[in-house]
């Protein structure tokens, strides 16, 4: 491979520094691991999701090795809400991962991918009776109970089935994760979990209720957390809680430590598996617990990109940066519209990097003012037909897509080395209405 293109502006140099899986080849353009995104764009078109199996596998192994290095036996339950594609679940299952699920649909999807019930835990604040029944029938590892009301409902269902339900109580420790307010889950004002002050009382109830097998506790304080400080605060509070429970004669064998490990979208510090593992050993190892974690974004986020193609270079005058309209949109990747999320954007073809750089607005074509990918981003002068890659799109990307504005779902591709395969065909226009039914009592069109 030839040397990378020289004289990139500092902003792109910083982006590449924090995204070592990307390189720019002077002849072939942007590489994602060993994959030429130019070749992918030429073969599959756009918009197209690309998941790199090699990077995903490497990240899982890095996480797993961090705990083994500390001699910690930690169960890794992939938070499949981040990206539940069967190809991803299959790969992670082969690596030894379990699943953290939040719906009956995700439970069936995890089972379809070959994840054993003994490696599945069920989180979520609004589990239905049917979902709880399915979880009990399947005999999953644990149900993370989020309220006193759910605990009593679960006991009633399990009793009617003549089966036991293994549970952990999800505790809200009232710890500020210092993350975006829409993805924090560990504050008292959030809907998640049982209030810390009520934890012992509810855990005692769990012991008294029929057909409930209490295992311990679960704590998850939010998402996109890079510092270990919030985890330390939460873990210390859980240690106090576990000691109090044990002092009152209540057995606690399990602590699910949650997930939320942050990645570097721009120039942030990525969460360090080694630092988290060291913290868990320091604070939790003395308690002799069965430990679990629930990573999602950290595993799949940097393992995926979204390819888009420029359809219009639009100028609104000298006072406003040009608008670059691409064929990917908020119906594909909703995070920027929903969270004002920042995603790196890199041109794919090598010749683009030789053009003059300027501030550009990158937008999608959807009829919403929030269909924005970037504002005043320093990039080469993009023109119609150019392909770009939106980085760190493997988590909360394709899984949150919609067909808004009658826009078909994008194709999904998985790569490994120089191999690629379609894992989700591009939806056709006709697919959009194939399951729609007009009532028979409508007047017939003449």
Automatic annotation (TrEMBL):
Residues bound to pyridoxal 5'-phosphate are 260, 294-297, 396
Among InterPro entries, the record links this protein to:
Ala_racemase/Decarboxylase_C (IPR009006), DAP_deCOOHase_LysA (IPR002986), De-COase2_N (IPR022644), De-COase2_pyr-phos_BS (IPR022653), Orn/DAP/Arg_de-COase (IPR000183), PLP-binding_barrel (IPR029066)
The reaction(s) this protein catalyses:
meso-2,6-diaminopimelate + H(+) = L-lysine + CO2
Q: Which domain of life is it from?
A: Bacteria
Pathways per UniProt: Amino-acid biosynthesis; L-lysine biosynthesis via DAP pathway; L-lysine from DL-2,6-diaminopimelate: step 1/1
Q: Which Gene3D superfamilies match?
A: Alanine racemase, Lyase, Ornithine Decarboxylase, Chain A, domain 1
Q: Which Gene Ontology molecular-function terms are recorded?
A: diaminopimelate decarboxylase activity; pyridoxal phosphate binding
According to its UniProt entry, the protein's GO biological process terms are: lysine biosynthetic process via diaminopimelate
Record-linked SUPFAM superfamilies: Alanine racemase C-terminal domain-like (SSF50621), PLP-binding barrel (SSF51419)
Q: What does this protein do?
A: Specifically catalyzes the decarboxylation of meso-diaminopimelate (meso-DAP) to L-lysine.
Q: How does it assemble?
A: Homodimer.
Protein family (similarity comment): Belongs to the Orn/Lys/Arg decarboxylase class-II family. LysA subfamily.
What is this protein called in UniProt?
Answer: Diaminopimelate decarboxylase
Q: Which organism is it from?
A: Commensalibacter communis
